[in-house]
Design goal:
homodimer, alpha+beta, 6-stranded mixed sheet, 4-stranded mixed sheet, 11 helices, elongated
Chain lengths: 367, 367
Amino acid sequence: MNLYETRLSAVRAAMHENGLDALIITPGASMRYLTGFSEPGSRFLALIVPIEQPWTLVVPALNAGQAQQNPAGIMGVRAWNDATGWESVFGPLAEELKLNGSSVGLDEDMPARFVLTLQELMPTAKLTLAGAVLAPLRSRKDAGEMDALQRAAAATDALIPIAYAACRPGASEVEIALAIQQATARGGNADSFAPIIGAGVNGASPHHNTGTAQIKTGDIVILDFGAMTGGYHGDITRTVVVGTASDEAKRVYDVVYRAYSAGVAAVQPGAAAQDVDAAARKVISDTGYGDYFIHRTGHGIGLDDHETPYILAGNDTLLLPGHCFSVEPGIYLPGKFGVRLENIVTVSEDGAARVLNEAISPEIVAL
Amino acid sequence: MNLYETRLSAVRAAMHENGLDALIITPGASMRYLTGFSEPGSRFLALIVPIEQPWTLVVPALNAGQAQQNPAGIMGVRAWNDATGWESVFGPLAEELKLNGSSVGLDEDMPARFVLTLQELMPTAKLTLAGAVLAPLRSRKDAGEMDALQRAAAATDALIPIAYAACRPGASEVEIALAIQQATARGGNADSFAPIIGAGVNGASPHHNTGTAQIKTGDIVILDFGAMTGGYHGDITRTVVVGTASDEAKRVYDVVYRAYSAGVAAVQPGAAAQDVDAAARKVISDTGYGDYFIHRTGHGIGLDDHETPYILAGNDTLLLPGHCFSVEPGIYLPGKFGVRLENIVTVSEDGAARVLNEAISPEIVAL
């Protein structure tokens, strides 16, 4: 069996366990995982995976040539054209497969305009989310995926000196982001996501929109970026000071560094996702900064930059070999600054963490 | 009234006409249109617009600071955190607003994982698409939006010489795309979409994935790209030859050029979207290439790169002042090459077309 046949076989076993008769997957990470093919666009394009009958791609006519070359070797490619619409092709297929009345898992990211139309086309189908089947499979990376994630981590690490060199007084956040993006492109890679560069008080907003604010001497700067290679994402965060850090900044950095280290150390045989969150959070809470750590400790990463397993309270998913996720605690002091530190870790065969990125400095790096 | 209050008022009038009690809008162009604010991410973030009561943003805690600064001045910002989940905040709000049992329009692009959860939270709500209300409003651009689209067109036109200069024998499609993207970034703009560069036979696939194929002398090359300014998209396509065009390529180019011109000329007072498609398509069909024009003639453009009005058979939407869309016929000869020509046009106050981009050459440009 080739890679995609192996995955299809595992997916069908999981569909059987979950009582699902079919999946309808729209473009994105799950389609790439299952077929090696995906194509963005506003038109309806979907992979239909019945539990027994052959799988089929329903695609706009203008993507038919690309779809026919899908790496999974799916033979059934049905094209629709703009004049008659996708329902004219999907409808008969749904009838052949008897989807109406059956239990169908939809892609988590399928747009509402398709979801509601599918409900009209198949009024007695029971629609649920395909993630119940796909997320557990996608979250355990195989050897080839681990290699790709390691390459993405290396390509991301290679951007650190570029980011540091760009952090000069007078440089704007956007200029720093562009320097990172240009180096990413020169390396032949794509951005995992638009870099988040938060200087000074902007760093206190965890998902600050990189803007025109200029770096001032003494600023604490959050640098959050990643390179994508072979479809797999990288994602790290470093926090630096331009000039000299205040005692408060040094103290907060030390707490976040210890929280990060505790999170990584908590990845042990038998640990659950929430244990990693609890370990990192405890360090921050014990030092009185608990109210300023306002997000989960991490997220899975792979073909999506955010995917399962999510590292947060209440997630009792056991961490198993092949799981790959970020550990990224942070403290955000409104009106002052923020500190976040992030590397990607994977669970190795012995159950312990293996950090894919280069080590984080135990003390804040002064540029 | 400020811009956003004006839009809110128009939206509520349209909700009244459409029998909608509330809208739930997720991040993207519609949220930006209504509030000036939007924030990408995998977490639930939504604007709730009841027909009478105040509008509210439900946001992840880590976006609360940004949401509170929303340009529309929305006072009700309710934050949820990762530990308790978005349902813990949305649920009580839905109860206050009595959304269950009412008629609710969902953002067209809301991911299925939220759609299905909303259906569980509000089992007796009638869920439809918000586009019925928003698309007609968003499709008629006001003066400020027209200015932004004109600026996006100018920024896009400025990339043409960059693209042409990069089209040299030996250059790969990716290198040409990067040259365009780097010039876009240097101009302080973002890409409207990843450039589509299709060299030689690759041009026969309308939405070819820009790849490592190298330009050869004699190649026909499709160059489809755009710059985005102030959130508004640009989008043009030029087709060139590197070296000397064959007689067949010259003939096909001429047909597409005349189809493009006929499409633009069909934008007249009283014309419908489908008339523009029919006018362009007739030129291509009359010359025997009808089977090789495998997509609609155009798409609306604005805060989204593809939005209403779509220019295709069956769309009897009357073209009105402020409508803004692409005219982009193409002919795709499998195994040979493709030709597509595209500019953005807007319907001016007198009902005729005004082309926002620089004129397309009537004969194929040889580089």
